[in-house]
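Hey, resending since the last one bounced:
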Amino acid sequence: MPHGTDILVLGATGFTGQLVTKYLNEHRDRTSFTFALAARSKSKLSALAESLQLNAQIPMLVVDVTKEDQVDDAVKTARIIINTVGPYCTWGTPVVRACARNGVHYVDLTGETAWIKDIIEQFDLLASKNGAVIIPSCGYDSIPSDLSAYLSIKTLKARLGPDTEAGESVTSHRLKGGISFGTLSTIYTYITEVPRPKIIAASRDHSISPASGAKSPRHKLVYSMPHITPRITGGFFLMSGANRSIVLRTRGLIDVTPSMKDLHYGPKFTYEEFLATSNQLTGMLLSVFMFSFGLFLSSSKIAQWLFKHFVVDTHSNPTYETMQKNFLKLTNVTSSVATSAKPEMTAKTIIKIRGDPGYLCTSVMLAESALALLDTSKLTPIGKQGGVLTAVSALGDELVTRLDNSGRFQFESSIITPEP
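The structure tokens again:
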């Protein structure tokens, strides 16, 4: 079926949708692709077009994601959908269904593992059959985490050989960033509307991976990065569970694909991550607070009411100027599995992001993931098969190149343990 435009931004008038639109409109390769905008309000679309001084020829569609016929009609107009309308457990399924049914590629920024598990079970086979590449979690959740492990493993294999297997992998996040109304609203909806057993099932090891593997490390009060000095310490990171699930899905997808055997992680691979703090005491206090807050919010109706009325409803989004000053530095260390012929070695990968990782640079990751899907010849063998995938398993090195070229990302990866 012919498509009228390359990319359709769904939810273009929302906070992240506006950032994605701005990035696409100012993109270095702007003349090489077309894009359109969709939202519920025609007046807000017009206001967005005026504020960003968009070309009058950019199509604008009024789409209500609660109306499946409107969603289906909108999806058919594009090759790729960037969906910024969350919470995805509430609004995302009809969009994914329409993309899988019509062979249209899809990216979003969800961190909702239970919903990702649902769409894998419902649409993975259909999407693959119709040639659609469906990639959830193409923002701060979970591209940086996924790339950090992937690049370290590639570095190990480059030194030790393609048959090298990965063992322990740990990532620290050191960041300065803001949070939007949409994110707070998603947290509230996920906790209050998704059944608890469903959340627990999705949080289990390898719950969204096609391959089982080693048991993940238990959560800790204080985290410490192995193998490097000065030692990086920290506490529990709110999105660590969602990010780990995506990293393990990438590992599973790669490991069950024979044509990618030179990148196989191996069955002993484990992954964990934490939020870096200034010292161990701060890390411990952070963990205690996050565990207590999560327990209270998930089990108390009073806490949920307070969170909704005094946090979600009163929150204002960060300004563009503030987001420009924010940053993220990821440090990953991954060790190889020692054999009789090869000793254990460790690789370190550093990813530096200039700008707010959760919004300003999430818009970059979303847009570049979508643009990577325009040229299917550059997809990995997994990406060429279609289905519900991950950004790293489907886009591979092409994603790294595109993010590096954006000017907001820097990647370094090297061996930190000497050869014998």
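The first helix runs from residue 15 to 25.

Sorry for the duplicate.
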